């Protein structure tokens, strides 16, 4: 006997309970499965969008930081440029280029060879010239001597040295005063001098180089100094030196993620600040950003990077095999320079971005699991509550339907007799008719129709049993005798009701 047969033997009340419970469980299971798929879709959608949003947000933050740092460095360089121009203006005034008379203070000058070795003099500047002394040199130097009174007041620790170089006899007046290590030093062959001389009236920012006195890496900011009142003759140049060690803290003061760094690169590609992983073993080497053996960037790639618009992104793989995301910012000090003097690059390892994305995915996966467990718990609780409610509701209905079932079972058991409805009463059903009034009414109508059929066939004089007409018996046996020795079918309540319907015509 299969499960279906066992189910058919149960009471209607229990069948209803099982039916509703299984239906609720199936619906709940379907809803849980749908919820799971919805949560998975939502997870994938959020993770994809969050990954893109996280990357875009990081790039936007790097761009904003780059703009801020670039403006800061521009302001610093602009201050250095204004400072150089102030020195140049003061020197012009002292030489009489911009005044009707000369401002002369002949207290004497300090020559470089009068200063002790490894000593710097901050009370006045020093003078160096490689040629034999002449009265004209003394005259020119005397004109410049009042700068010694100005130097201590305008000097700042941001500067390594400030100085003036003159074309005539190639002499140099510099502050702080110290010995000159090169006896044939000439300003004419120095970048700060010949670049300014080649672009009269402009302010020049040189590429980084090593200072001959201190061996520190510096950049020089210089401008031309005319030698007449019409500002058309070139007399020399004024310059100041800024060490890279002074610039670097101003550049690298911001921490970018864990391993991010900032590159400051000159227009010529010279690196002013770099990460430790790029620094050469020989510290005296000058590194350009397109030195592939140190940076991993080729010259062709550098030309592409250099021509990117400010705020653009560029990805590359450095010499260590690390994928780098780079944001470029142009630096153009507010001077008469039209082109960018430097480039600022904000760099971050791509793995850090991927780690952030992976962490976001991991965190959301945990949230997704919690949400699914919550949904599953809610579904389970609702299912249990519904099952309990179904049980209590159908238990009473089952008792009522059991009485209906017993009533019709009695009719079926009496189907071999002439009066099948003998002893059928609705008293108990009427007493328990709450909620099933319509069903009881239909049952009464059904029983009444059976009684009407019995009265209709009364003239056959059946007495206590059915007539012996074989054809009539054979025609009705499958309908009225579902549970007898002539029919192998087992009695089922659903079939019995249907058979009665077939017999009695509705």
TrEMBL record:
Annotated SUPFAM superfamilies? Sensory domain-like (SSF103190)
**InterPro entries from the entry?**
Sensor-like_sf
Membrane-spanning parts: 16-35, 371-393
| Key words of the record | Membrane, Transmembrane, Transmembrane helix
- Protein name per its UniProtKB record: Cache domain-containing protein
Q: Which organism is it from?
A: Stentor coeruleus
Lineage of origin: Eukaryota, Sar, Alveolata, Ciliophora, Postciliodesmatophora
């Amino acid at each position: 006997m299969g499960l279906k047969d066992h189910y058919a033997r149960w009471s209607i009340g229990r069948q209803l309970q099982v039916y509703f419970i299984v239906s609720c469980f199936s619906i709940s299971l379907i809803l849980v499965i749908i919820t799971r798929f919805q949560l998975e879709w939502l997870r994938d959608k959020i993770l994809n969008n969050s990954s893109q949003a996280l990357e875009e947000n990081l790039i936007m933050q790097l761009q904003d930081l780059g703009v801020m740092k670039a403006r800061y460095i521009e302001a610093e360089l602009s201050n250095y440029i204004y400072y150089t121009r102030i020195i140049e203006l003061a020197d012009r005034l002292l030489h009489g280029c911009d005044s009707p008379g000369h401002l002369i203070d002949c207290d004497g000058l300090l020559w470089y060879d009068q200063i002790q070795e490894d000593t710097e003099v901050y009370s006045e500047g020093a003078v160096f010239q490689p040629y034999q002394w002449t009265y004209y040199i003394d005259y020119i130097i005397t004109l410049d001597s009042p700068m010694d009174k100005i130097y201590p007041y305008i000097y700042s620790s941001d500067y390594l040295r400030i100085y003036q170089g003159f074309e005539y006899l190639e002499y140099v007046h510099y502050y702080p005063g110290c010995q000159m290590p090169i006896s044939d030093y000439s300003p004419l062959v120095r970048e700060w001098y010949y670049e300014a001389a080649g672009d009269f009236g402009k302010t020049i920012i040189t590429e980084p180089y090593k200072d001959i006195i201190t061996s520190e890496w510096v950049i020089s900011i210089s401008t031309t100094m005319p030698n007449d009142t019409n500002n058309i003759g070139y007399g020399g140049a004024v310059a100041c030196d800024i060490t890279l060690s002074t610039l670097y803290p101003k550049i690298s003061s911001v921490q970018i993620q864990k391993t991010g760094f900032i590159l400051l690169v000159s227009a010529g590609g010279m690196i002013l600040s770099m990460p430790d992983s790029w620094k050469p073993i020989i510290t005296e080497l000058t590194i350009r950003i397109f030195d592939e053996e140190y940076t991993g960037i080729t010259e062709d790639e550098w030309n592409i990077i250099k021509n990117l618009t400010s705020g653009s992104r560029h990805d590359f793989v450095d010499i260590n095999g690390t994928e780098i995301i780079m944001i470029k910012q142009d630096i153009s000090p507010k001077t008469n320079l039209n082109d960018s003097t430097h480039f600022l690059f904000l760099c971050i390892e791509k793995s850090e971005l991927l780690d952030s994305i992976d962490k976001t995915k991991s965190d959301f996966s945990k949230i997704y699991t919690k949400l699914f467990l919550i949904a599953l718990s809610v579904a389970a609780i609702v299912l249990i509550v519904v099952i309990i409610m179904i049980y209590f509701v159908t238990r009473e209905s089952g008792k009522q339907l059991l009485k209906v079932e017993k009533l019709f079972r009695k009719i079926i058991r009496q189907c071999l007799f002439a009066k099948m409805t003998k002893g059928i009463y609705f008293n108990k059903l009427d007493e328990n008719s709450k909620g099933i009034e319509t069903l009881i009414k239909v049952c009464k109508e059904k029983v009444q129709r059976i009684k009407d059929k019995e009265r209709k066939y009364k003239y056959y004089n059946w007495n206590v049993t059915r007539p012996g007409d074989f054809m009539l018996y054979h025609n009705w046996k499958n309908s009225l005798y579902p549970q007898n020795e002539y029919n192998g079918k087992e009695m089922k309540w659903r079939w019995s009701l249907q058979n009665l319907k077939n017999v009695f015509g509705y």
